[in-house]
Amino acid sequence: MSTSYSMHRTVTTTSTSHGYGSASHAAEEFVAAAEREKQEMQQLNSRLEAYISRVRQLEDRNKELVIELDTLRGSLGNDIGQIKFKFNDSLVKVRREITEAHAGTIGVEVKVNRLRDDLNDYRHRYEEARREVEREKTTWGGAIAQAQAELDTNKSRYAAILDEEKRLYAEQDQLYHQLAAAKDELDAAIADRLRLQAEEDDLKIELEFLGRIHAQEITELRALLAQAPADTREFFKNELALAIREIKAEYDKIIQTTKVDLETIFQTKIAAVEASVASKNEAATFRQEEIRKMNESITTLRAKLSELEARNAALEREANTLQIQLGEDQRAYESELVKRDNALRFMREDCQTLIAELQALLNTKQTLDTEIAIYRKLVESEEGRFNHIGQGVTVQQQEIQRFGSRCNAS
């Protein structure tokens, strides 16, 4: 029989290994016993050939005896008593050989019956071994299917982990891009603040410059006023004081207005920048917290992934080892099955040959029994003839003696 089954298997149980070993041991005993029986049958065939050769020799000897008997029948005038004495030992020997041959046929029948019983026993043991092999094949098939299912489950889990890792990496890249955009916005806000501060400094410098110009103009006016006549000075004093007050009031108004406008603009810009910076800082803080959480999650997932990768690698190594071992076991199992098939085929052929030889032996035995019975009847009939002829010769000798005595008396 030929078998094939798919392979990854798990660790087999001790009972399965023991069953396989017992089946293998039973097969080896079966082959050894078959070899012994084959040798015994060869010896029995040799003995049977010797027996057949001996029977043929006896048949040839019987033919010679028949020829001699015919010759003796042709020459009845000879001494019949000496002939009987001459062939008496041969007849006894032939009877003994016939008895031994009959006993040999009985031994052959006993051997044949024992071989039939052994053949039935071997058939029963072969069926037991075949059933054990089928049970082992079923067990190995279930173990391989279980290991294959576990391997498929681990592969699907590994693929899901890889997908999750890709998703986390994509989300991390997105967060990095958002953080970079927030940093760019923060840098732009800082640049706007610096620009406004520079504008404020420029306006302050311009105010100081205008103040110096107005102070210089006042100084020049005062100098002109000092150089003018008294009445002119007195005339323009009130006008100049009024103009100075107006200029100063206008200057103060301009300065105050400019200062208020600048402070308002500056405060507005600062508030906007601070609000933007605060919101961006909050967003950045939130994003940093999210990034920290994501990093922790990624670290945890990487640890789990490393553990699962190590476990998956161990399972793959174990699966490869199991597949290699399963392939070796399958090859050994198929080789053992081929050997068993060959041995069983040879045994079947030997059994068929033995059955044919036994049938031939039985036919030969029946033929020999028939020939022996015929030969026995012939020998008994010839022995009866010899006795009858001996009695006739004895009577003739007695008559001859009486006739001779009568002649002597005359």
From TrEMBL:
Transmembrane spans: none
Pfam short name (any one): Filament
Residues forming coiled coils: 27-75, 112-206, 291-371
Annotated keywords: Coiled coil, Intermediate filament
SMART domains reported for this sequence: Filament
Cellular component per GO, a single term: nuclear lamina
Limits of the IF rod domain: 37-386
InterPro entries to which the protein is assigned, alphabetical: IF_rod_dom
Compositionally biased tracts (Polar residues): 1-19
GO biological process: heterochromatin formation; nuclear envelope organization; nuclear migration; nuclear pore localization; protein localization to nuclear envelope
Name this polypeptide is given: IF rod domain-containing protein
Gene name per UniProt: Cni-ifb-2
